[in-house]
Write a structure and sequence with these properties.
- The protein is of the alpha/beta class and about 260 residues long.
- Strand 1 (about 1-5), helix 1 and strand 2 form a beta-alpha-beta unit.
- The longest helix has 23 residues, at about 120-145.
- It has helices spanning about 10-20, 60-65, 90-100, 120-145, 190-195, 220-225, 250-260, and strands at about 1-5, 25-30, 40, 45-50, 65-70, 75-80, 105-110, 180-185, 200-205, 210, 230.
- Helix 1 (about 10-20) packs parallel to helix 4.
Length: about 260
């Protein structure tokens, strides 16, 4: 089994490619969010997550804490990121696994165009071009059960989820603006953003999109808006160009979250 979380489609694309090569099913963690416990007894267990502020997204941490895995399985994670570095992500995932007596076997970085920090079209093109070869490398490592992560055996702290960057409405103080969305006059209230929001955090009121506080910071609303009407109220990323993986469709994103097709 390979679980993933996605906003722009990068992690979905990578999970699908890994699933095809490893002959493993692929599922979005959002499909399991309402469950109190999620069990997986597969001998190969993979995760594909985007890197948020050098760590796992809080919503991925939330999922991991309720996941029970096979004690003798091989567990790996692939972290997609703008810089090709995942910071504390491997450590965080291993801590969640340790809570259930399991450990992370291997962690891999996959550099892709980012959903927040801006990169040039040339940089994005190079990353997309190089990604398939990197996927092949990861597949070979998983097939040979490569172990490249040494667990410290530590369990997660009490604020493992709530202390994360961009957590719900309690985002760390200096990053609150990174979840303040400006909806421009170009918004026509089509409702597409509401349909692809993984947490159903967006509603349409008086013909315009309105964001709540339960944000996963995936920025799917920004990158998939057909009118390019969503901005982030932060100088470094305001008016950044839209991006989504060229081989991922809106239908796939919407189907993952709400079984809505456009």
């Amino acid at each position: 089994m390979i679980y993933y979380f996605t906003g722009t489609g990068n992690s979905l694309w990578a999970a699908k490619k890994l699933g095809e090569e490893l002959k493993q099913p692929v599922e979005s963690i959002i499909k399991h969010r309402a469950e109190e416990k999620t069990e997986c007894s597969d001998k190969i267990l993979g995760f594909v997550f985007p890197t948020y502020m050098m760590d796992l997204p809080w919503i991925a941490k939330e999922f991991l804490l309720k996941l029970t895995v096979s004690s003798d399985g091989y567990v790996f994670v692939v972290m997609t990121s703008n810089h090709g570095k995942s910071g504390r992500a491997f450590q965080s995932l291993d801590q969640a696994l340790c809570l259930g007596g399991k450990k992370l076997s291997a962690g891999f970085d996959l550099q892709m165009p980012g959903n927040c920090l801006v990169s040039t079209e040339e940089e994005n093109g190079e990353r997309l071009q190089q990604a398939p070869a990197r996927i092949k490398e990861i597949v070979r490592s998983v097939q040979t059960r490569t172990v490249n992560y040494k667990s410290k055996g530590r369990k997660p702290r009490k604020n493992f989820v709530s202390g994360s960057y961009f957590y719900g409405e309690n985002s760390l103080r200096r990053l609150t603006r990174m979840k303040n969305f400006i909806i421009s006059e170009k918004c026509n209230g089509c409702g597409l953003c509401a349909s692809i929001c993984p947490l159903s955090n967006i509603r349409i009121s008086d013909g315009r999109a309105v964001h709540g506080h339960d944000c996963a910071a995936c920025y799917a609303c920004l990158h998939w808006c057909p009118k390019d009407a969503v901005w982030i109220d932060a100088p470094a990323v305001r008016h950044r160009p839209q991006y989504h993986h060229p081989d991922t469709t809106l239908q796939e994103i919407a189907g993952d979250y709400h079984d809505c097709l456009f």
